[in-house]
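Here is one chain, start to finish.
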Amino acid sequence: MTKSIYEIWISTNDNKERLRLPVLPSSIEIGNPSNNESIEISKLGEVTVLQDPAAKTFQLSSFFPAKKTPLVEYSNIPKPWDAIKKIEKWQKSKKPLRLVITKTKVNFPVSIDSFEYSEEGGAVGDINYDLSLKEFKFVTVRKIKVKTPPKKKRPAAKPKAKTHKVKRGDTLWDLARKYYGNSLQWRKIWNEPSNKKMMIKRDKRNLKQPGHWIFPGQVLKIP
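Its structure:
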Protein backbone atom coordinates (compact mmCIF):
# COMPACT_ATOMS: atom_id res chain seq x y z
CA MET A 1 0.00 0.00 0.00
CA THR A 2 1.32 3.45 -0.90
CA LYS A 3 1.96 5.53 2.19
CA SER A 4 0.53 9.00 2.61
CA ILE A 5 2.64 12.06 1.92
CA TYR A 6 1.43 13.41 5.26
CA GLU A 7 3.03 12.83 8.63
CA ILE A 8 1.42 13.88 11.88
CA TRP A 9 3.79 14.71 14.71
CA ILE A 10 3.07 15.75 18.28
CA SER A 11 6.04 16.87 20.32
CA THR A 12 7.05 18.90 23.30
CA ASN A 13 7.53 22.50 22.24
CA ASP A 14 11.32 22.16 22.60
CA ASN A 15 11.14 19.03 20.33
CA LYS A 16 13.02 16.88 22.86
CA GLU A 17 10.18 14.34 22.98
CA ARG A 18 8.22 13.42 19.87
CA LEU A 19 5.49 11.05 18.79
CA ARG A 20 4.53 10.34 15.19
CA LEU A 21 1.02 8.95 14.82
CA PRO A 22 1.43 5.46 13.33
CA VAL A 23 -2.03 5.43 11.71
CA LEU A 24 -3.38 8.61 10.14
CA PRO A 25 -6.86 9.66 11.23
CA SER A 26 -9.49 9.25 8.52
CA SER A 27 -10.16 12.97 8.97
CA ILE A 28 -8.97 15.86 11.11
CA GLU A 29 -11.46 18.40 12.33
CA ILE A 30 -9.99 21.89 12.63
CA GLY A 31 -12.18 24.46 14.31
CA ASN A 32 -11.67 28.19 13.97
CA PRO A 33 -14.33 29.64 16.28
CA SER A 34 -15.13 33.32 16.43
CA ASN A 35 -15.54 35.40 19.54
CA ASN A 36 -17.94 37.77 17.79
CA GLU A 37 -20.79 38.96 19.98
CA SER A 38 -24.30 40.01 18.97
CA ILE A 39 -26.16 42.57 21.05
CA GLU A 40 -29.59 44.15 20.73
CA ILE A 41 -29.65 47.96 20.53
CA SER A 42 -32.91 49.88 20.71
CA LYS A 43 -34.13 51.10 17.26
CA LEU A 44 -31.10 49.55 15.54
CA GLY A 45 -31.80 45.87 16.07
CA GLU A 46 -29.03 43.29 16.34
CA VAL A 47 -25.46 44.58 16.04
CA THR A 48 -22.45 42.26 15.71
CA VAL A 49 -19.29 43.27 17.54
CA LEU A 50 -16.23 41.83 15.80
CA GLN A 51 -13.57 40.37 18.09
CA ASP A 52 -10.20 38.74 17.56
CA PRO A 53 -10.57 35.11 16.43
CA ALA A 54 -10.50 32.48 19.16
CA ALA A 55 -7.87 29.73 19.41
CA LYS A 56 -8.06 26.98 16.80
CA THR A 57 -9.11 23.47 17.85
CA PHE A 58 -7.96 20.14 16.43
CA GLN A 59 -9.86 16.87 16.76
CA LEU A 60 -7.98 13.65 15.90
CA SER A 61 -9.44 10.14 16.13
CA SER A 62 -7.49 7.01 15.26
CA PHE A 63 -5.83 4.04 16.98
CA PHE A 64 -2.45 2.81 18.13
CA PRO A 65 -1.92 -0.61 16.53
CA ALA A 66 -0.39 -3.53 18.37
CA LYS A 67 0.93 -4.99 15.12
CA LYS A 68 2.04 -3.62 11.80
CA THR A 69 -0.75 -3.55 9.22
CA PRO A 70 -1.16 -1.94 5.78
CA LEU A 71 -2.55 1.14 7.59
CA VAL A 72 0.67 1.73 9.54
CA GLU A 73 2.76 4.60 8.16
CA TYR A 74 6.25 3.62 9.31
CA SER A 75 8.39 0.94 10.94
CA ASN A 76 9.32 0.74 14.62
CA ILE A 77 5.93 1.95 15.79
CA PRO A 78 5.56 2.55 19.56
CA LYS A 79 3.73 0.00 21.68
CA PRO A 80 0.15 1.20 22.17
CA TRP A 81 0.40 1.60 25.94
CA ASP A 82 3.76 3.39 25.64
CA ALA A 83 2.12 5.95 23.33
CA ILE A 84 -0.82 6.32 25.72
CA LYS A 85 1.47 6.88 28.71
CA LYS A 86 3.50 9.50 26.80
CA ILE A 87 0.42 11.53 25.88
CA GLU A 88 -0.94 11.27 29.44
CA LYS A 89 2.41 12.45 30.80
CA TRP A 90 2.31 15.47 28.49
CA GLN A 91 -1.27 16.19 29.54
CA LYS A 92 -0.34 16.13 33.24
CA SER A 93 2.68 18.38 32.68
CA LYS A 94 0.35 21.20 31.52
CA LYS A 95 3.12 22.43 29.23
CA PRO A 96 2.54 23.43 25.59
CA LEU A 97 3.08 20.87 22.84
CA ARG A 98 3.44 21.30 19.09
CA LEU A 99 1.27 19.77 16.40
CA VAL A 100 2.82 19.45 12.94
CA ILE A 101 1.18 17.99 9.83
CA THR A 102 3.72 17.82 7.04
CA LYS A 103 2.85 19.17 3.58
CA THR A 104 0.30 21.50 5.22
CA LYS A 105 0.36 24.81 7.07
CA VAL A 106 -0.53 23.10 10.34
CA ASN A 107 2.32 23.87 12.71
CA PHE A 108 0.91 25.19 15.96
CA PRO A 109 1.72 25.19 19.66
CA VAL A 110 -1.14 23.35 21.33
CA SER A 111 -2.42 22.12 24.67
CA ILE A 112 -4.34 18.91 25.31
CA ASP A 113 -8.01 19.64 25.94
CA SER A 114 -9.07 16.01 26.33
CA PHE A 115 -7.69 12.55 25.68
CA GLU A 116 -9.90 9.48 25.71
CA TYR A 117 -9.01 5.93 24.71
CA SER A 118 -10.47 2.43 24.76
CA GLU A 119 -9.51 -1.12 23.91
CA GLU A 120 -12.21 -2.90 21.91
CA GLY A 121 -12.72 -6.46 20.69
CA GLY A 122 -11.66 -7.49 17.25
CA ALA A 123 -8.09 -6.30 16.84
CA VAL A 124 -6.65 -7.48 20.15
CA GLY A 125 -4.12 -5.02 21.60
CA ASP A 126 -5.13 -2.05 19.43
CA ILE A 127 -6.14 1.06 21.39
CA ASN A 128 -8.58 3.54 19.89
CA TYR A 129 -8.29 7.16 20.94
CA ASP A 130 -9.89 10.58 20.58
CA LEU A 131 -7.50 13.50 21.04
CA SER A 132 -8.67 17.10 21.30
CA LEU A 133 -6.04 19.81 21.01
CA LYS A 134 -6.34 23.57 21.34
CA GLU A 135 -4.06 26.25 19.97
CA PHE A 136 -1.81 27.57 22.72
CA LYS A 137 -1.29 31.33 22.95
CA PHE A 138 2.02 32.44 24.42
CA VAL A 139 1.61 35.52 26.57
CA THR A 140 4.44 37.90 27.33
CA VAL A 141 3.94 39.67 30.61
CA ARG A 142 5.02 43.28 30.41
CA LYS A 143 7.28 44.24 33.26
CA ILE A 144 6.84 47.72 34.66
CA LYS A 145 9.68 49.26 36.57
CA VAL A 146 8.47 51.09 39.62
CA LYS A 147 10.80 53.72 40.94
CA THR A 148 11.01 53.59 44.68
CA PRO A 149 11.83 56.84 46.42
CA PRO A 150 15.28 56.85 47.98
CA LYS A 151 15.28 56.10 51.65
CA LYS A 152 15.81 59.15 53.77
CA LYS A 153 18.92 58.89 55.79
CA ARG A 154 18.30 59.34 59.45
CA PRO A 155 20.54 61.93 61.03
CA ALA A 156 23.33 60.24 62.88
CA ALA A 157 22.69 60.13 66.58
CA LYS A 158 25.00 62.33 68.56
CA PRO A 159 27.46 60.21 70.47
CA LYS A 160 26.77 60.10 74.19
CA ALA A 161 29.26 62.13 76.17
CA LYS A 162 31.44 60.03 78.42
CA THR A 163 31.48 60.81 82.10
CA HIS A 164 33.75 59.81 84.93
CA LYS A 165 32.89 59.76 88.60
CA VAL A 166 35.94 60.91 90.53
CA LYS A 167 37.42 58.43 92.98
CA ARG A 168 39.94 59.01 95.74
CA GLY A 169 43.38 59.48 94.23
CA ASP A 170 42.13 60.52 90.74
CA THR A 171 43.84 63.42 88.94
CA LEU A 172 43.11 65.04 85.60
CA TRP A 173 46.50 63.76 84.42
CA ASP A 174 45.55 60.17 85.27
CA LEU A 175 42.16 60.57 83.59
CA ALA A 176 43.77 62.01 80.42
CA ARG A 177 46.10 59.02 80.25
CA LYS A 178 43.16 56.63 80.78
CA TYR A 179 40.81 58.15 78.18
CA TYR A 180 43.24 59.71 75.65
CA GLY A 181 46.39 57.68 76.20
CA ASN A 182 48.29 60.89 76.89
CA SER A 183 48.49 62.67 80.26
CA LEU A 184 49.29 65.96 78.50
CA GLN A 185 45.70 66.04 77.20
CA TRP A 186 44.37 66.86 80.73
CA ARG A 187 43.38 70.37 79.58
CA LYS A 188 40.62 68.84 77.37
CA ILE A 189 38.89 67.74 80.55
CA TRP A 190 39.60 71.01 82.35
CA ASN A 191 38.43 73.21 79.46
CA GLU A 192 35.03 71.44 79.22
CA PRO A 193 32.81 74.36 80.46
CA SER A 194 30.71 72.34 82.89
CA ASN A 195 33.83 70.70 84.38
CA LYS A 196 35.66 73.99 84.82
CA LYS A 197 32.63 75.67 86.40
CA MET A 198 32.09 72.79 88.83
CA MET A 199 35.75 72.52 89.87
CA ILE A 200 36.16 76.27 90.46
CA LYS A 201 32.89 76.45 92.41
CA ARG A 202 34.04 73.55 94.63
CA ASP A 203 37.52 74.96 95.24
CA LYS A 204 38.71 78.44 94.24
CA ARG A 205 42.30 77.23 94.24
CA ASN A 206 41.57 75.82 90.80
CA LEU A 207 41.79 79.41 89.47
CA LYS A 208 45.52 79.47 90.24
CA GLN A 209 46.19 75.78 89.76
CA PRO A 210 43.73 74.69 87.00
CA GLY A 211 42.32 71.21 87.56
CA HIS A 212 44.55 70.40 90.44
CA TRP A 213 41.74 70.23 92.98
CA ILE A 214 39.12 67.58 92.25
CA PHE A 215 37.13 65.63 94.82
CA PRO A 216 35.60 62.13 95.07
CA GLY A 217 31.99 62.02 93.92
CA GLN A 218 32.33 64.74 91.30
CA VAL A 219 31.11 63.68 87.82
CA LEU A 220 33.34 65.00 85.05
CA LYS A 221 32.48 65.02 81.37
CA ILE A 222 35.14 63.46 79.13
CA PRO A 223 34.91 65.36 75.81
